[in-house]
Amino acid sequence: MQEFIYQSGWGAFTVLLLMQIPFILFFLFVVFRQGSKKPSPSPTIDTSITRLKNIWMVAVVTIFVVINVVSIKYFPSVVEAQAEASGLEIHPVNVTAESWSYDISQTEFKVGQTVRFTAKSTDTVHGFGLYHPTGKILFTMMLIPGIGDASLVHTFKDSGTYKIRCLEYCGASHHEMSDELVVTASSN
Ligand SMILES: [Cu+2]
């Protein structure tokens, strides 16, 4: 039975069907209950409902706009444009990923340095995920072979060892695909 469920298409289909049954029954119940009602002469518009709908509409649009305005500064393209506009020196770092390692042109940096990671993969889809020394993920890039380089600008704010991990499943040793960058306190 387990083999049927987990290893065959028909098994998966049966599970899907069983999961759908409550929803199908509920749908049929609602449709038939509505169908058995007598149609009312003319629908009257409830003004309190209309007012509620308008308030809801305004709330949704406001939340949408606020979230976008607040989060736009974290957009990679905006971060890059800001770094360029500020006249900061951007250090180019080239990354080549292949199963299951990275070739990184520079792995030691100073706090405050702004780096542009330009990365590509030579064989299959890989990820380039950068982790802060505390373990918090800073960003990840998806590297797809044949579609050009992925690039991202990042400024190192803290010293320590930054872990790089592949976050796109790329085969048997995907879990071992990692590297490190070392960031030291700036001398000045
Ligand atoms: Cu991987």
Question: What is the CATH superfamily of the largest domain?
Answer: Cupredoxins -  blue copper proteins
Quote the distance from N terminus to C terminus: 68 Å
Give the helices and strands as they follow along the chain. HHHHEEEEEEEEE
Rg: 27 Å
**Structural class computed from helices and strand pairing:** alpha+beta
Count of helical regions? 4
Tell me the CATH architecture of the largest domain: Sandwich
SS strand fraction: 25-35%
Oligomeric state as shown:
single chain
* Small ligands present: copper (II) ion
Helix coverage percent: 25-40%
Main beta-sheet annotation: 5 strands, mixed
In total, the number of domains comes to 2
How many beta-strand runs?
9
CATH topology of the largest domain: Immunoglobulin-like
Report the mean per-residue pLDDT as an integer.
87
Low-confidence stretches: none
What is the CATH domain class of the largest domain? Mainly Beta
Instruction: Write out the strand line-up for the largest beta sheet, numbering strands in chain order.
Output: 3-9-8-5-6
* Shape summary: flat
